[in-house]
Amino acid sequence: MVPGPATTAAATQDPDGSMLVVTDVRVSGHDAFDRLVFEIAGQGDVGWRIEYDDDPRSQGSGDPVSIEGDAVLRIALTHIAYPGDAPAQPRQGPERLRPTDTDVVVEILDDVLFEGRQEFFVGLRDVRPYRVARLDDPQRLVIDIETR
User: Fold this and answer.
1) Is residue 139's pLDDT more than 90?
2) CB contact at 8 A, 60 and 112
């Protein structure tokens, strides 16, 4: 599990360096937590804002977001380049991920990239504490959501 205290409050980190791109998103279940991994390419450090959202809406349009689960964790990655300006091939995955080996994570929605901010919504069975860390080689944002 990612070290440090778990929280249900908002977590933020400012970006640093050049524009980045999300190249992969993975989710897996572990003994006491579900893990989300966002793989990032580029020379900078990704920024983020992670928070529970009672009324999830798509950025730009403001349209309500439909996602499975009884709680929604919004993950906004910042300093993200549009595909034509990206330093590597952007993620080419499905818009929605529905893992089968997790305890708390029900669904992940890759919403939109708008003005350097790429948002993901994570549908959960309920509100759970989480931990977040940025890892290197390759750069990854890792979020562990407690299952117990």
Assistant:
1) yes
2) yes
